[in-house]
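Inverse folding, one chain.
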């Protein structure tokens, strides 16, 4: 490619690159001005990419497990012809895939789904912690200005 650029008969390539560069210099500020105004008014970003609910985690786990098991079936095809030991080994691989997908998607979905309830339950257990949080909430100021204090 670099050898082609230095050829004198390809002056049109240089002209095209210069025109594209000028267009980008003119259009980028306009596009960014339009897009940044919409980004600033959008909702706040998620703190985590984990599944938010159990059903979302189960759906992702089932979908990805099906893909991985289907792909593994091609690789494990010779094991099915080895008799009971091969079939048991393939079944163990499938179970490990299911365990992996459950631990990666379903469990974080469970903890995300019940995090607020569990945290409130944790706060309500020792009365001293609840009293400390109520004391802190009286002087707390939200930097954004529209949220209440924590889980209280």
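Residues assigned per position:
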């Amino acid at each position: 490619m670099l050898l082609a650029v230095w050829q004198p008969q390809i002056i049109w390539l240089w002209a095209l690159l210069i025109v594209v560069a000028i267009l980008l210099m003119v259009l980028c500020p306009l596009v960014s001005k339009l897009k940044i105004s919409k980004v600033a008014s959008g909702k706040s970003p998620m703190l985590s990419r984990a599944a938010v609910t159990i059903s979302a985690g189960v759906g992702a786990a089932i979908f990805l497990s099906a893909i991985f098991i289907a792909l593994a079936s091609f690789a494990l095809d010779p094991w099915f012809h080895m008799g009971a030991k091969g079939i048991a080994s393939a079944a163990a691989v499938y179970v490990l895939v299911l365990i992996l997908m459950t631990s990666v998607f379903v469990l974080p979905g469970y903890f995300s789904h019940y995090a607020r309830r569990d945290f409130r339950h944790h706060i309500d257990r020792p009365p001293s912690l609840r009293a400390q949080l109520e004391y802190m909430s009286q002087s707390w100021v939200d930097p954004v200005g529209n949220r209440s204090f924590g889980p209280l």
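The mean pLDDT is 81. Residues 80 and 90 are 7 Å apart (CA to CA).
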